[in-house]
Amino acid sequence: MIALASEEARLYLQQVPDRPVRHQADRERLLSVLGGSLATSGAAPEQIVRQLADTAHWGNVACNSPRYFGFVIGGAYPVSLAADWLVSTWDQNAGIYAISPMVSVIEEVAAGWLLDLFGLPNDAGVGFVTGCQMANFTCLAAARHGVLRRIGVDVETEGLAGSPRIHVVTSAESHVTIDIALRYLGFGTRHVHRVAADAQGRMQPDALAAMLETLSGPIIVCAQAGNVNTGSFDPLAEIAALTNAKGAWLHVDGAFGLWAQANPELRHLSRGIELADSWSTDAHKWLNVPYDCGVAIVRHANDHRAAMMSTAAYLVQTAGKERDPTDWGPEFSRRARSVPVYATLASLGRSGVAALIERSCARARQFAGVLAESPGVDILNDVVLNQVLVRFDQDDARTRAVIAAVQQEGTCWLGGTVWHGLAAMRISVSNWATSEADVARSAEAILRCHRMLSASQSG
């Protein structure tokens, strides 16, 4: 059984570089193969594995393809995939040290490596969570605890009902996961203070300063490293100076942009990021480990742990130096997400991670350069990282039609967005395996679809 799954996995991986990136079936076809009533008697395990493997070839979008640019999704380095297979084989509940000492130590080491790579305080709290949604949740839970602790309120005991109001300030361009985290944490979104952003999606420090002047009491400011559309960075040094002067907590959503810290040539983009109080990022984006893996980092480890930890008489929790991973994230039961992170970092080293980041950025610049040379194609953003916004014929309908045509054609897959009221194609380059040839082939497919649509309309 295990050998069969391994062979099927190898076949899938072998076909990914050349297969159409799009899925090749609709819901009805997938239901006809996978659905139906639950049988009274089960089928042979080998039959089920083969059915799943066969269906994946035409039912999956090849998100790990080197020509998948739809969302900020990495591939999976072979070493990270192999480590993840081991994680499933070991089947460890990585919540507490007593259950899995090895995984606890791996998490401790991987956390230290990440802090060093990002240039963040080596005594910060680190939690491995499902993704940046829960990383933002974890960091903002620590922020909620921290800003209230400073004025003598224990929110973990008293809750928000009797606590002073916390003012939450975000950019007008903050990611939706910030709002969702605020909902989960009981803040709601109606009273969030939104700060204007510039043409590239960067929070404007003057507007933030004016906003902070109107606020008193506990304050949490949410900034961004890597706008999901443009890749731009908020001016973090200026924002940090303003928030520190106000005694506010500064959180930075760095879902993919925090990884710029790992490349000396790009570190200027995130200048001042080390001055924040908390940071969130994803490893399943730019580190290219398998889903799911996000990372929550909090400068004030005591606030982090106090916001997350729970105790129970039946748990065997450590009172020593050993790490109980559940103290640093919202889950009791969880898989050993840190193991693929550890394996990938150990395999790449500092220089390998830096090269990975630069490679993706170079491929984004290549996309922008090739596409911009074609008549009727406009690049809407400054390509500072791995994101490219493209518009066709200065027309919403044409832009959306090109996106749909490219998705159907299958050479590559990318998505659309709305930027400052304009429809745009959004290209995200995050896969370790994306080559110059992949970009050239994908750009030609995009331009071919554009030419085809232009010709059909003119004809």
Please characterize this protein's 3D structure:
GO terms for molecular function: carboxy-lyase activity; pyridoxal phosphate binding; transaminase activity. This is Aspartate aminotransferase family protein. Pfam families: Pyridoxal_deC. Belongs to the group II decarboxylase family. Its cofactor is pyridoxal 5'-phosphate. This protein has 459 residues and is an alpha/beta fold. The chain has a domain at 82-343: Type I PLP-dependent aspartate aminotransferase-like (Major domain) (Aspartate Aminotransferase, domain 2). Helix content is 43%, strand content 12%. A seven-stranded mixed β-sheet has the order 1-7-6-5-4-2-3, sandwiched between helices. Helix 1 packs parallel to helix 3 (45-59) and helix 6 crosses helix 11. The longest helix has 35 residues, at 338-372.
Strand content: 5-15%
CATH superfamily of the domain at 82-343: Type I PLP-dependent aspartate aminotransferase-like (Major domain)
β-strand number: 11
Assigned CATH class of the domain at 82-343: Alpha Beta
Distance from N terminus to C terminus (CA atoms, Å) equals: 57 Å
Estimated structural class: alpha/beta
The SSE order reads HHHHHEHHEHEHEHEEEHHEEHEEH
Which consecutive residue ranges, at least 5 long each, have pLDDT under 50?
none
State the shape.
globular
Tally of individual helices: 14
CA radius of gyration is: 23 Å
